[in-house]
Design brief:
Elements: H1 3-28, H2 33-60, H3 87-96, H4 100-105, E1 115-119, E2 122-126, H5 132-154
Helix pairs in contact: 1-2, 1-5, 2-5
Length: about 160
Amino acid sequence: MSAARGRANQSLYLARILLDAWDEALDRQELPARVVNQAFLPAVKLHLGQAYGWFLLAAAQLDRLPERPPARSAELPPVPEGKAVPGEIRELSQLESGGWLADMLADEQPLAAPQPVARDNLVIATAAMPGAAEARDWLAKLGALFERMGDSLNEY
């Protein structure tokens, strides 16, 4: 296992710890769910984003790792002349443009108050902020993606 893949796995582990604490905080119902979500979402997204960045570096198979992982595939160093962009990087780049990975990587303002929306003479607050269930889904999908792509990376 490469050093970058090890760091990706560590970041996934830290996200899992936070998600467990998030679920426990929601179960206790001591605070409104919106407040608990605002407290945990940024930290979980940070660890998931770092896991993704370290995995990008593992897929790029760089000789030297930077101090911090990239946030997206476009931030990877250029591929040396004469080498092709790995298929995993191309696939990850496509996933970044839409779907669950794009949602996970999206820059949000989680501390903003919900925006009121008028509907049939009623004003309701909409909460566009992802919750613990969606973050846990991101963790599972990221882990599955790493597992699938990791098998092909190990063949090199």
